[in-house]
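Q: Make up one entry.
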Amino acid sequence: MAPRVNTAPIGHSPRVTRTRAYRDGVLQKADFPVADVSDFLADPGTAVWVDLCEPSEADLAELAAELGLHRLAVEDAVHERQRPKLDRYDGHAFLTAYAVRFAAETGSLATSELAAFITRNALVTVRKDDGFDIEAVVRRWDQNTELTQAGVPFLVHGLLDFVVDGHYEAVQALDEQVEALEDLVFDDRPDQSQLQRRSFRLRKSLTALRKVVLPMREVISSLMRPDLKLAGELTRPYFEDVHDHARQAAEQTESLRELVGTIRETQLNLQGNRLNLIMKKVTGWAAVIAVPTAVTGFYGQNVPYPGNGTPAGFWTSTAVMLVLSAGLYGLFKKKDWL
């Protein structure tokens, strides 16, 4: 599918939600104008974060010139539906990732796309919509101050940690939904239409989740390469922890997709078995009923026979029907045909 281009008019003002500057592990200033970014970047000991929501290429032009951002990366930052990836350019890296939210009430999965430019002393996040909870990322930075002195790696780790934790929470929620679906399959009287709706809805959500979760393993692995200087002696254990969570989320997503397929196959097999059991019972009862039909048909012949037109003949035919029907019922029951 072709990427959907942001159609906001050139020259419109992007919604700048947050800006921050850290110096030597201490927050120096927050929510300052973008025009002041160059003043902070002049100090090599300062790490700057800028967040933009739904900007155009023109909105990014000033920052792109200031940070030396590649034109192709700027284009990807404003175009939607990019795959999760890490592109490396001269002087900076470009990251695309997705935050996810799973609604258990509807069984639907919502995704929010985020792009990020990573330079030596700056992190610029570009949100494609308001769905990405950037305030939650800020709270995570404020709560985990042990890495603040790392500068940009500290900011990147907090961002990825938030994204991957969201993936893992969605996987856990889907796991609970799949377990509920398993219980529903083995009900004595399962609702087949409800089973089909829930299984297809879960499979659709898992497919969407797989597209954004699986690539994150490679993205984080690439970020940990020594030449990017993000995963140093201080931050490497933290990046490895995020990578481990991303791997677990990816593996569990694959397992759940296979499990939903297995549940669907099991449902069809159980449905077929129930149908076969019903057909077996119907056929058995048809055979039992065929005996009285044959006897009454024989005694209905228009020719004289012993007992014809007498009460003894009626009772004889009735006894024959009862005995043969009871015998067939006992035989079929013994063979588990009824």
